[in-house]
């Protein structure tokens, strides 16, 4: 018996959040004695890259290289993962929460008759029964959830476990999947994706701007700061509503939920709906000219001041230090 | 076209989250309930599509009687009829079973939901219903147009979006900017009173992942303020104290 992990790639590299999922599964296997960890990767990706998944704790990677799986078609991916699940005789599937992962996991829950818990933030408590802690109310609370099915799916939230980095390279085995026409009932006709940039949901540091930035033309300053830090850029909802920034950068209750080590909020008031998207950050820095801005209450560090003055200085100071 | 929109009845996004009875129950004291913000986007788009293509728009909620004002609001926004599956929504699987049953019975061409509920944030019900009905499901969908039976969608992916084509019937979990939230007008509110709101019973009792207790995150310490003329100090703190650089 093994624990199966569904890993995703971005630009030919296994996503860091997927490596976290593998680390989570490795820790879970050690806890429950559920055997080893087998990862499954879909679509074209280098086998050498896949072998590195071993460092996070996978013994083996099943690779279904069928190029029809390159596109993130939800049904096709769900079918392929279900086949991997029965091939390895797994009872537990672990994956990282993501736009594709969530959609695939939900279909798999029915296919595998598996109880599904999303937003998992800690290893399950298996002392009596099987209880999983998950984040609810958009990070404002946690729920202990009792899983009563034999098969289980856990969708792990970012930063919920330390990344394991000392495992041995994994063996990579190719794996044939059978896909039906109905798996391809939809067709992806175009993909627009920022390339080479740090992706917001994955980022370890996020530099985010609000309406206090006054206009799209002032984002150069934030991009410069982000570049210095190797950070992704984000924004508040009004900023993407007005069109100063693209929609996929919008952070909050109705946007991307981030969980970086460091979140720097610049000219954002800190409305409760914005905070809901950032409350899983390890450290929050707020730069706002209004000392009464609610964001300061949620911050670890704050600077009361004009962003147009403070941000360039901060970038300079960071360049000197890093 | 027959459209079904599944809506949640959830605490307003500004609500203070608290629990009672030994942390086993959500404390509703002083809480205002709303249509889930993502469900509200789904509903707004559904109203536009119904107005465009004709047909009928049904809203459905799995919930106890206290959710009826929320369903009435959806009727005021423009739905033609409402269904309430009279039961406490115990977990996503339970909810999905109910929705799948009534969706099948209603023979809908298009089923719109929110990307996720804002209480349990599972983002699961659309996929589960899709699999139960053997229908394709897509989420998070930020654009959806229907031309005959052909549907064109934009789905958000990390760092961008993809454009998809599929055929009716299908299920989509919606998010902005699929449409703008609609506020009910006076006429809508008046007519909502007389539109049908049918209460039906749960068809299955099965659950898989029920929440047994709740907890709040630890309180945040006070913010450390740094003088705006001394940003180097902030860099030091981030490096040596917070250890995030
Ligand atoms: C159901 C619902 C869902 C929502 N979802 C989201 C969401 O997901 N994400 C989100 O962000 N919002 C969301 N909102 C909107 C939210 O309520 C706020 O309106 C929004 O977050 C405010 O954005 P902001 O802080 O950029 O703008 P403002 O509130 O206008 O704040 C601008 C801030 O910039 C500061 N400022 C101005 N000039 C400067 C300067 N020169 N230097 C430094 N600081 C300056 C000001 O002091 C102020 O604090 C939602 C609202 C609702 C009702
Ligand atoms: N109790 C419910 N009644 C009706 N629809 C629901 C219910 N719970 C969830 N949904 C729908 O499923 C979507 C996703 O919910 P969830 O999987 O809980 O995040 C929501 O946005 C709603 O459209």
From TrEMBL, chain A:
<dbReference type="InterPro" id="IPR029035">
    <property type="entry name" value="DHS-like_NAD/FAD-binding_dom"/>
</dbReference>
<keyword id="KW-0274">FAD</keyword>
<protein>
    <submittedName>
        <fullName>Electron transfer flavoprotein alpha subunit</fullName>
    </submittedName>
</protein>
<dbReference type="GO" id="GO:0033539">
    <property type="term" value="P:fatty acid beta-oxidation using acyl-CoA dehydrogenase"/>
</dbReference>
<dbReference type="Pfam" id="PF00766">
    <property type="entry name" value="ETF_alpha"/>
</dbReference>
<dbReference type="InterPro" id="IPR001308">
    <property type="entry name" value="ETF_a/FixB"/>
</dbReference>
<feature type="binding site">
    <location>
        <position position="288"/>
    </location>
    <ligand>
        <name>FAD</name>
    </ligand>
</feature>
<dbReference type="GO" id="GO:0009055">
    <property type="term" value="F:electron transfer activity"/>
</dbReference>
<feature type="binding site">
    <location>
        <begin position="267"/>
        <end position="274"/>
    </location>
    <ligand>
        <name>FAD</name>
    </ligand>
</feature>
<keyword id="KW-0285">Flavoprotein</keyword>
<feature type="binding site">
    <location>
        <position position="211"/>
    </location>
    <ligand>
        <name>FAD</name>
    </ligand>
</feature>
<keyword id="KW-0249">Electron transport</keyword>
<feature type="domain" description="Electron transfer flavoprotein alpha/beta-subunit N-terminal">
    <location>
        <begin position="3"/>
        <end position="188"/>
    </location>
</feature>
<dbReference type="InterPro" id="IPR014731">
    <property type="entry name" value="ETF_asu_C"/>
</dbReference>
<dbReference type="InterPro" id="IPR014730">
    <property type="entry name" value="ETF_a/b_N"/>
</dbReference>
<keyword id="KW-0813">Transport</keyword>
<dbReference type="Pfam" id="PF01012">
    <property type="entry name" value="ETF"/>
</dbReference>
<dbReference type="InterPro" id="IPR014729">
    <property type="entry name" value="Rossmann-like_a/b/a_fold"/>
</dbReference>
<dbReference type="GO" id="GO:0050660">
    <property type="term" value="F:flavin adenine dinucleotide binding"/>
</dbReference>
<comment type="similarity">
    <text>Belongs to the ETF alpha-subunit/FixB family.</text>
</comment>
UniProtKB/TrEMBL annotation, chain B:
<comment type="similarity">
    <text>Belongs to the ETF beta-subunit/FixA family.</text>
</comment>
<dbReference type="Pfam" id="PF01012">
    <property type="entry name" value="ETF"/>
</dbReference>
<keyword id="KW-0813">Transport</keyword>
<dbReference type="GO" id="GO:0005829">
    <property type="term" value="C:cytosol"/>
</dbReference>
<protein>
    <recommendedName>
        <fullName>Electron transfer flavoprotein subunit beta</fullName>
    </recommendedName>
</protein>
<keyword id="KW-0249">Electron transport</keyword>
<dbReference type="InterPro" id="IPR014729">
    <property type="entry name" value="Rossmann-like_a/b/a_fold"/>
</dbReference>
<dbReference type="InterPro" id="IPR033948">
    <property type="entry name" value="ETF_beta_N"/>
</dbReference>
<feature type="domain" description="Electron transfer flavoprotein alpha/beta-subunit N-terminal">
    <location>
        <begin position="23"/>
        <end position="209"/>
    </location>
</feature>
<dbReference type="InterPro" id="IPR014730">
    <property type="entry name" value="ETF_a/b_N"/>
</dbReference>
<dbReference type="GO" id="GO:0009055">
    <property type="term" value="F:electron transfer activity"/>
</dbReference>
<dbReference type="InterPro" id="IPR012255">
    <property type="entry name" value="ETF_b"/>
</dbReference>
């Amino acid at each position: 018996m093994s624990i199966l992990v569904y890993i995703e790639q971005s630009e030919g590299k296994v996503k860091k959040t997927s490596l976290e999922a593998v680390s989570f599964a490795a820790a879970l296997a050690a806890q429950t004695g559920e055997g080893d960890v087998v990862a499954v990767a879909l679509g074209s990706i280098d086998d050498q890259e896949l072998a590195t998944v071993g460092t996070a704790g996978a013994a083996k990677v099943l690779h279904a290289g069928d190029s029809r799986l390159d596109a993130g078609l939800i049904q096709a991916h769900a079918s392929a993962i279900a086949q991997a699940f029965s091939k390895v005789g797994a009872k537990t599937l672990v994956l990282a929460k993501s736009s594709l992962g969530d959609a695939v996991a939900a279909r798999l829950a029915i296919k595998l008759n598996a109880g599904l818990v999303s937003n998992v933030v800690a290893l399950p408590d298996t002392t009596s029964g099987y209880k999983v802690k998950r984040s609810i109310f958009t990070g404002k609370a946690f729920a202990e959830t009792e899983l009563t099915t034999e098969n289980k799916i856990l969708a792990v939230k970012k930063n919920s476990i330390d990344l394991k980095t000392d495992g041995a390279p994994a063996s990579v085995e190719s794996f044939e999947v059978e896909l039906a026409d109905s798996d391809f009932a939809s067709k992806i006709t175009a993909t627009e994706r920022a390339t080479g940039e740090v992706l917001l949901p994955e980022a370890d540091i996020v530099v985010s701007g609000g309406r206090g930035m006054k206009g799209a033309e002032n984002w150069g300053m934030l991009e410069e700061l982000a570049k210095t830090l190797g950070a992704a850029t984000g924004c508040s909802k009004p900023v993407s509503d007005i069109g100063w920034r693209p929609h996929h950068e919008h952070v909050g209750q109705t946007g991307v939920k981030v969980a970086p080590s460091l979140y720097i909020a610049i000219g954002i008031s800190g409305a409760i709906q914005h905070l809901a998207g950032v409350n899983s950050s390890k450290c929050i820095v707020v730069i706002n000219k209004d000392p009464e801005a609610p964001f300061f209450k949620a911050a670890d560090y704050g600077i009361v001041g004009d962003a147009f003055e403070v941000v360039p200085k901060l970038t300079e100071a960071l360049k000197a230090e890093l | 076209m027959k459209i079904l929109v599944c809506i949640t009845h959830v605490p307003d996004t500004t609500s203070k989250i608290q629990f009672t009875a030994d942390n086993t129950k959500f404390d509703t004291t002083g809480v205002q309930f709303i249509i889930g913000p993502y469900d509200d986007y789904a509903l707004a788009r559904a109203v536009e599509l119904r107005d465009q293509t004709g047909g009928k728009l049904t809203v459905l909620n799995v919930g106890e009687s206290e959710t009826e004002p929320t369903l009435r609001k959806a009727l005021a926004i423009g739905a033609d009829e409402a269904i309430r599956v009279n039961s406490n929504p115990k977990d996503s699987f339970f909810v999905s079973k109910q929705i799948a049953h009534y969706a099948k019975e209603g023979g809908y061409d298009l089923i719109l939901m929110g990307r996720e509920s804002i209480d349990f944030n599972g983002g699961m019900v659309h996929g589960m219903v899709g699999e139960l009905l053997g229908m394709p499901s897509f989420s998070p969908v930020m654009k959806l147009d229907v031309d005959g039976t052909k549907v064109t969608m934009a789905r958000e992916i990390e760092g961008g979006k993809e454009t998809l084509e599929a055929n009716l019937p299908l299920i989509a979990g919606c998010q902005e900017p699929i449409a703008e939230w609609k506020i009910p007008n006076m006429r809508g509110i008046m007519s909502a009173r007389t539109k049908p709101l049918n209460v039906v019973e749960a068809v299955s009792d099965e659950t898989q992942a029920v929440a047994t207790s709740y907890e709040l995150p630890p309180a945040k310490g006070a913010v450390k303020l740094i003088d705006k003329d001394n940003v180097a100090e902030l860099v030091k703190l981030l490096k040596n104290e917070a250890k995030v650089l």
